UniProtKB/TrEMBL annotation:
GO terms for biological process: isoleucine biosynthetic process; L-serine catabolic process; L-threonine catabolic process; threonine biosynthetic process. Its EC number is 4.2.3.1. Residues 24-318 form the Tryptophan synthase beta chain-like PALP domain. It comes from Sinosporangium album. The keyword Amino-acid biosynthesis applies. The modification N6-(pyridoxal phosphate)lysine is found at residue 61. This is Threonine synthase.
Length: 351
C-alpha cells in the first residue's frame, strides 16, 4: 500500500483536469467507511457511515474545493468568493491559502457554528456577515462574481460536484459494488447530485453492477424540495442545511427520480436524537446536519419505506467539533474537584 495522494491524483482520469492543471490539495478524501453496529441493529440493515468529518477542514466540502480552487488557479483567478452556512467558507478559506488566492465569504449573521467561523477567520478570509439568509448570500455572491474579477466557488461551480462525486467512487471501491441505498443530508442539494453522478459513472462503465437508491433528507423547517416550493424563512437547529431555495434543486430531484429514491423531511428532534445516537453508541462525533442522514434512515425503516437486510451507506457530512456550543449545551456540566484522588474516586462513584 502507498500513501493517499488526495482525490485529484487518486481519480485523475475521471476528473476534468489535465497534466498542466495546478493541483491544489490538502490530501482530502480517502475517508473512513465505518460499519455502524448500533444503527445496523436498530434498522436490520448493513449500515456503513461515510465519515466526511475526517477531511482536512472537517467536512465533505474539501472534495469540491480541491477541484474548484485548482481550476480557478488554472484559469488565472486571483480571488475567490462563496456564500456559506459555514463549511464551504472554512474549506474555501483553507484551499485559498494553499493556492495563494484571496478569499471572500458571505455568511448569514448569527447562523453559522462557532468552529466554522473560527476556521474562515484563522485562514485569513475576508468574512462578511450578511443580515439575511444563506439564500440571500448566494444571490449576492452570484452577482459579485458576474460583475467583478472574483471566481465563484459555491456548488453552482460545476467543478465542485466533479470533486464531490469521488466519495461515491470510494464507497464502491471499498464495498466492491454500490450499496442498495444511500442516505444523505440535503441543503443546497449539491452533494446528493454529486454522489448520483459518481454512482452512475461507475455503473455505466461497469465498475459497479448497479447504482443505489438515493434518499435525501432535509430538516422539516427547511424542506423546500419536500414541500415543492422555496421556503422564505427556513428554520432548523441544523444550521448547515438551513436553506430555503437550493441551487441544485433540479439535479437533486433527478437523482431522486432516476434512482428510485426519495427526498423526505426529518424534524429537529429526530436530528438531535440521531446526533446523540452517533456520539454515544457509535463513537462518531458529527455535526447536527450530518445526523439527518441517519435520522432519515431510521424514519424510512420505521415507516416501512425500506425493507430490512439492505446494504446502506449514510454520509455523515461534517465533524462535530464544528459546533461546540451545541455539543456542550446538551451535555451534563463537568464536576469540579480539589487536587485529591479520594475526591475524584467519590465523584466517579468508585469509593
Ligand atoms: N451537511 C453539512 C455539514 C453541510 O455543511 C452541508 C452544506 C450539507 C450537509 C448539505 O449539502 O448543500 O450539498 O446539499 N453546507 C453548505 C455550506 C451549504 O455553505 O457549507 P448540500
Amino acid at each position: 500500500t502507498r500513501a493517499w495522494r488526495g482525490l485529484i491524483e487518486e481519480y485523475r482520469d475521471r476528473l476534468p483536469v489535465s497534466t498542466t492543471t495546478p493541483v491544489v490539495t490538502l490530501l482530502e478524501g480517502g475517508t473512513p467507511l465505518l460499519p455502524a453496529r448500533r444503527v445496523s441493529a436498530l434498522t436490520g440493515c448493513d449500515v456503513h457511515l461515510k465519515v466526511e468529518g475526517a477531511n482536512p477542514t472537517g467536512s465533505f466540502k474539501d472534495r469540491g474545493m480541491t477541484m474548484a480552487i485548482s481550476k480557478a488557479v488554472e484559469e488565472g483567478a486571483k480571488a475567490v468568493i462563496c456564500a456559506s452556512t459555514g463549511n464551504t467558507s472554512a474549506s474555501a478559506a483553507a484551499y485559498a491559502v494553499r493556492a495563494g488566492l484571496t478569499c471572500a465569504v458571505l455568511v448569514p449573521r448569527g447562523k453559522i457554528a462557532m468552529g466554522k467561523l473560527a476556521q474562515a477567520l484563522v485562514h485569513g478570509a475576508r468574512l462578511l456577515q450578511v443580515e439575511g439568509s444563506f439564500d440571500d448570500c448566494l444571490e449576492m455572491t452570484r452577482k459579485l462574481s458576474e460583475n467583478y474579477p472574483i471566481a465563484l466557488v459555491n456548488s453552482v461551480n460545476p467543478y465542485r460536484l466533479q470533486g464531490q462525486k469521488t466519495a461515491a467512487f470510494e464507497i464502491v471501491d471499498a464495498l466492491g459494488d454500490a450499496p442498495d441505498v444511500h442516505c444523505i443530508p440535503v441543503g443546497n442539494a449539491g452533494n446528493i447530485s454529486a454522489y448520483w453522478m459518481g454512482y452512475r459513472e461507475y455503473e455505466s462503465d461497469g465498475t459497479a453492477t448497479r447504482a443505489p437508491r438515493m434518499f435525501g433528507f432535509q430538516a422539516s423547517g427547511a424542506a423546500p424540495i419536500v414541500g415543492g416550493a422555496p421556503v422564505t424563512h427556513p428554520q432548523t437547529i441544523a444550521t448547515a442545511i438551513r436553506i430555503g431555495n437550493p441551487a441544485s434543486w433540479g439535479l437533486a430531484e433527478a437523482a431522486r427520480d432516476e434512482s428510485g429514491g426519495d427526498i423526505q423531511a426529518v424534524t429537529d428532534r429526530q436530528i438531535a436524537a440521531a446526533y446523540k445516537l452517533l456520539a454515544q453508541e457509535e463513537g462518531v462525533f458529527v455535526e447536527l446536519a450530518s445526523a439527518a442522514s441517519v435520522a432519515g434512515l431510521l424514519q424510512a425503516r420505521e415507516q416501512g419505506a425500506l425493507p430490512s437486510g439492505l446494504r446502506v451507506v449514510c454520509t455523515v457530512t461534517g465533524n462535530g467539533l464544528k459546533d461546540p456550543d451545541w455539543a456542550i449545551s446538551g451535555a451534563p456540566s463537568p464536576v469540579t474537584i480539589p487536587i485529591d484522588a479520594h475526591a475524584a474516586a467519590v465523584a466517579l462513584e468508585l469509593a
